[in-house]
Design goal:
By secondary structure, this protein is mainly beta. It is 0% helix and 52% strand. The radius of gyration is 14 Å and the shape is globular.
């Protein structure tokens, strides 16, 4: 019922930039946490960056200083601006949203992923 639609992936040379977008089918203010994950071939999925409804932000050490996460509540969209891209950033990037609950189970939503490939 809840849909997350990603866009912005593609091929880029090392040192280049890309901006990923994730648009939700509901008010993103209703999501307590949104974030970007990535999974490279043969590796586990990892959290890249997250942002809360209160604008609290966290980044993985590997992307600090290079990536910027943001959200536009009016557009129901979350962004990941990726700068100074490295071949190690090559992965499928996934949008994630969580609705937390104390009494009822929390909900966890995922997009289908978008491929980012950085050439050396």
């Amino acid at each position: 019922q809840v849909q997350l639609v990603e866009s912005g992936g593609g091929l880029v040379q090392a040192g280049g930039s890309l901006r990923l977008s994730c648009t939700a089918s509901r008010r993103i203010f209703s999501f307590d946490v949104m974030g970007w994950y990535r999974q490279a071939p043969g590796k586990q999925r990892e959290l890249v960056a997250s942002i809360t409804s209160g604008e609290g932000i966290n980044y993985a050490d590997s992307v600090k200083g290079r990536f910027i996460i943001s959200r536009d509540n009016a557009k129901n969209t979350m962004y990941l601006q990726m700068n100074s891209l490295k071949p190690e950033d090559t992965a499928v990037y996934y949008c994630n949203a969580k609705v937390l609950a104390i009494i009822t189970p929390s909900n966890d939503y995922w997009g289908q992923g978008t491929q980012v490939t950085v050439s050396s």
